[in-house]
Amino acid sequence: MHRISIRSSFLSKVRIFSFPYSSGPLNHHHQNQEPEIASPARIQKLIASQSDPLLAKEIFDLASRQPNFRHSYATIHTLILKLGRSHQFSLMQSLLSTLKSHDYSISPSLFTHIIQIYGDAKLPDKALKTFYTILEFNIKPHTKHLNSILEILVDNSNYLRPAFDLFRSAHKHGVSPNTKSYNILMRAFCLNGDLSIAYTLFNQMFKRDILPDVESYRILMQGLCRKSQVNKAVDLLEDMLNKGFVPDALSYTTLLNSLCRKKKLKEAYKLLCRMKVKGCNPDIVHYNTVISGFCKQGRAGDACKVLEDMPSNGCLPNLLSYQNIVGGLCNQGMYDEAKSYIKVMMSKGFSPHFSVVHLLVKGFCNIGRVEDACEVLVESLSHGTSPHSDTWVEIMPRVCEAEDTEAMGDILKQVMKVEIKPDTRIVDVGAGLEDYLIKRIQTKSRRR
């Protein structure tokens, strides 16, 4: 019933559209004559305005049955995309056949959209068939079509071989692969672990006078680093620089990460220093990568030097920079230095993660410096960092066991002066507080 009413509404619309515009009254002939269908342009607008693709197809079919009516190419193009995007693929293919049988002049962009529709629908086989459908229409596929299909195919490892076959046969159909085509396949083979094929493709580019770009080099560098061949990746960087390319930030990130993982920290720092000279200013990611690398290898002192160099190179440390430094210093037992950096950190408006505070508090507690531990706790609370319950568990027994309970009580009072939020979980260490209060009462009793 709903469709019938819509169809009636449509018929009324096309009849209204079909009357010729005239300032004079309609004569008797016009009043009795069945109006002709609206113009193809108006049908196209009506179909384009429909949100329901099946209703749009019904309107299309209804108009098609009118005598001497021919849809415009724009109408068919619009409807094909509507049907495809709603996964009405059989109807979409039927309309494609209509285009072919009625000798329309077809825009290659239609196939660009169809390829993308199949890609979005995760139908790589249909995307591949579209390439050969283009040939059936006697249209020369563009390199853009080839690249779109290659991207869809390599997204599924099962279609890597068909993608390679299409790439190799493309020239037979007048399509010349470009740098992007090579990059798509090189990346796919690197991710698949077939580094030798990626290298072959890279070398083919030079033989076929296709100039690789920064991405081409980066893809190979990433592939080499995944295979732990960081030395070869660095050599490739040198080759890139010698050929006049300026590596991008991601290329350097790849190499720095790999060098740090391989514990080649001297080489990583050297590369970091060379970046600016070679036209790529190191950013916070590059600095933090090297800082983290030094800290993980027990070289927090060297990490501090890197951090101190940052401002002069136009890059300011961030929260992660300081947290890596504090964590690294704590792991080496350098608690005074760590305390100094956590103060600098908070003075710059950064609130340390509770895990960093816990590491420093625990470190001071372990070497019997409870006052310093409490000072760190006071500082962190005043900057809005809520200590974890484990931090309270760590510090409370030390306070209770201290010989100078009067002094420890004063320190605890300082802690309690800071606004403590519900998420500090101090309730979890109620037993520790109870012990402390009992000791205080016993001490006072003995004095009396």
Automatic annotation (TrEMBL):
Superkingdom of origin organism:
Eukaryota
Q: Does the keyword Repeat apply?
A: yes
Similarity comment: family membership:
Belongs to the PPR family. P subfamily.
Xref: Pfam families: PPR (PF01535), PPR_1 (PF12854), PPR_2 (PF13041)
Q: Where are the PPR repeats?
A: 178-212, 213-247, 248-282, 283-317, 318-352
List keywords of the entry alphabetically.
Repeat
Which protein are we looking at?
Answer: Pentatricopeptide repeat-containing protein
In its UniProt entry, the species of origin is given as: Penstemon smallii
InterPro entries, per the entry: PPR_rpt, TPR-like_helical_dom_sf
